[in-house]
Amino acid sequence: MVTKNNFSFNRKSILRLKSEIQELFDNAERIDYGDFKVLCYPKNNISPGIFQVFISVPKKRLNKATDRNVVKRRIRESIRLNYQDLELLCINNSIRLFYGVIWNRDYICEYKLIEQNIVLSLQDIYNKIYEKTQNP
User: Fold this and answer.
1) Paired sense of beta strands 96-103 and 50-56, if any
2) What's residue 5's pLDDT?
3) How would you classify the pairing of strands 29-32 and 50-56?
4) What are the distances in angstroms from CA 1 to CA 4, 5, 95?
5) Is 128:63 a contact under the CB 8 Å cutoff?
6) Which domains does the chain have, with CATH numbers?
7) Residue 20 CA: distances (Å) to CA of 10, 47, 101
8) Of 4, 12, 13, which Cα lies nearest the Cα of 76?
9) Tens digit of pLDDT for each residue in 15-27?
């Protein structure tokens, strides 16, 4: 029998509050991955550890709303399929991680390229947080 993995991405995982988004922009570490910039801000000792995502595709970069939505969908899907290890690390260590993605290009990339960069960014963040939890 084949077991089904739960790759859900619920509403609690989306960063929506203006104050939290502002906190992300004010305090986050910024890393450039070519097609997009990643903002990462971990908060320690928060009782329910959680991983929250913010995705932005500026109108300045892609004028058509349909193009922006395609890019957002591709980013969201690649995060949804690859964030489980990082979320478990956050939950087990009581870390609230704000993770933001800001699109940098004037064109739409293929899903494979977006997914490769998202996986790379999630692995980098996982390694940084893991090192901090092992060596406080």
Assistant:
1) parallel
2) 60
3) unpaired
4) 10, 13, 35
5) no
6) 14-134 (3.30.230.10)
7) 18, 17, 15
8) 13
9) 999 999 999 999 9
